[in-house]
């Protein structure tokens, strides 16, 4: 397919192409921090881990097609969380020497510096009931911390957002597996039928991407969720969609509904589910899997050099959607 897709320009534009030396020079100039840079994987931005005598950080360069207001929206959300739930293990915004939280670059994009959150990547942790409940509990706590926060950029269009699932039909032809493609189409038919009902549910700004690569577990206990990373997909959407996103990566194919219930139980510790939300949760969880399958299939074909990273969640999404009851 061409670049004329519902993914938008930032998901169809390569990440910034700054060298390690150029990135470090900018870090020294604006933050006064010297250190070693190690490149981190990213879907659309350029990110570096900074190791310095002042600690570790994440240096981020936004995709040049990203609206600067979206980057500012992310920073303000992190500041809101820090004020509302200071012990939540999420990145903190590090101001530059002049006090700015974002630094504009010549190409119009923004650079910023965040604190490093300690922990082990959750995708390395063995699946377990305590971990599933912990993921749900962290998702609910984070969503509650974001209550009351809003920003003009919160309504931006992002195809990863579950409420935008109808736009995936343009990407479905890129799913190579024919039976899987047909199943994804069935789920999109279900979504189109229930979409009007989402408007009556509670809406707010949510993280919207609580996949295991964006979660950390404790160094000494793989059942404890110890951190949340990457707020780049935040949107204002039905609150239940954030739980559906988190749950979609925690489904045990051998017991799909029981494992979904475990995530939901953790969430309910902070945010009890409305009956209407509970009824839609299994289907919305499947829709997130459809989203993962369709977008990654399309983007891996477009960016083959980054295919390993892009497709990292494809296998679990496929296994999960095949295990869930069909619409």
Short description:
The chain is built from 10 helices and 10 strands. It has 327 residues and is an alpha+beta fold.
What does this protein look like?
The structure is a single chain. It is built from 10 helices and 10 strands. With 327 residues, the protein is an alpha+beta fold. Helix 5 (178-198) packs across helix 8. The longest helix is centred in the C-terminal third of the chain and has 28 residues, at 275-302.
C-alpha Rg (nearest Å): 19 Å
Question: Number of helix segments?
Answer: 10
Which spans of ≥5 residues are poorly predicted at pLDDT below 50? Answer: none
End-to-end CA span: 28 Å
Main sheet properties: 5 strands, antiparallel
Percent of sequence in beta strands? 5-15%
Class based on secondary structure composition and strand pairing: alpha+beta
Query: Which sequence of strands runs across the widest sheet?
Result: 1-2-3-5-4
Helix content: 40-55%
Shape: globular
